[in-house]
Amino acid sequence: MRNVDILIIGGGPAGLAAAISAYEAGSRNILILERDENLGGILKQCIHNGFGLHTFKEELTGPEYAQRYIDKVIEYGIPTQCDTMVIDVTPDKVVTAVSRGAGLEHFKAKSIILAMGCRERPRGALGTPGWRCSGIYTAGTAQKLVNLKGLMPGKKVVILGSGDIGLIMARRMTFMGAKVQACVELMPFSAGLKRNIVQCLDDYDIPLLLSHTVIDIHGKEHLEGVTVAEVDPKTLKPIEGTEQYYECDTLLLSVGLIPENELTNMAGVKISQATNGAEVNENLQTSVDGVFSCGNVLHVHDLVDYVSEESAKAGINAFKYVKGELKENEKTLEVVNGFGVSGAVPQRISQKIDEPISIMFRPRGVFKKAQVCIDVGDKQVATKKARIFTPGEMVTLKFKPEYLENSGNADKITVRVEVQQ
Prior knowledge:
- This protein is an alpha/beta fold.
- Helix content is 19%, strand content 33%.
């Protein structure tokens, strides 16, 4: 049994940022466990630019962004153990891991930071009719094949879903000589960032078919084509007579991300139905004392810069917990998702906080000329206006300590969207 003050599970952008902030706060007994052969997580295959504008005030590629943090970890001498799979986490913070080099190991941690990231939703979760033929990939798998392995999945492509990875792969496949025939989105709005829609679809005349979906997959051994149909915006059921056939040899799926929370469940942490991640308080501490969660395993972010910012806070608070300096208030207020709001994080805020905290959420739809309102109990304490709110872009609100002044017997904080007349 090895004793560790702060054990971080995951060596992607979240785990790296948490480790660096904990070290800079004063911790000298940190260990990062990473299941891949190298640190950096998903950023290693994201060779496009657009990273780091908030964190470093310059535009970087994914590998460049990750390397900034990897270099810091090396500079500080923070221990890392790659090619190591964590197979168990207990509520009393005992972690079991296995690796080729060390075999089966047990770690006793004073604090654990969960930073395992997320995975893509596969075809099996969609229930789309058709043969189980080759030529169907998640967008992230295709990205790894093209960017890291130098392999092309195919030449005629249809993309189902308009998440950011799918949009970026539409451009990447076009660069590599493939013909991307359409990006098909079930909802009446895109799930990706506006800049990706413009730069990855519009700039290359790739049609975005909103309120459409794939209703049939053709080809027994290998994909030969797909049938696409328009859906009713309210019921999301295909509309008869709107079917179109697209000949293709590749179907890329960009239909959502799922937090990797199997270990979170093992640790006895309460899971939020809205985010599929852990429920946390303003310190990013879960329902299990000393266990913290951050990054895409907590809730799926739109920008890695926000992952780093959030994870740095988790690292600092984990070290405060180890030192016994993390304040715990008896009364907490539940953060409630009001009209137009999905997956607000954190889910609990102490009645007494010393500094502003960030509440993050995704809008449930497209809202123009609207404002976000924060209510403590029945009292509105703050608003934030915007020309447009969309599900593809997260909304961040600064929740200030003074918002809780005179909160009295209030037991909830409601975040809601209010459309202006």
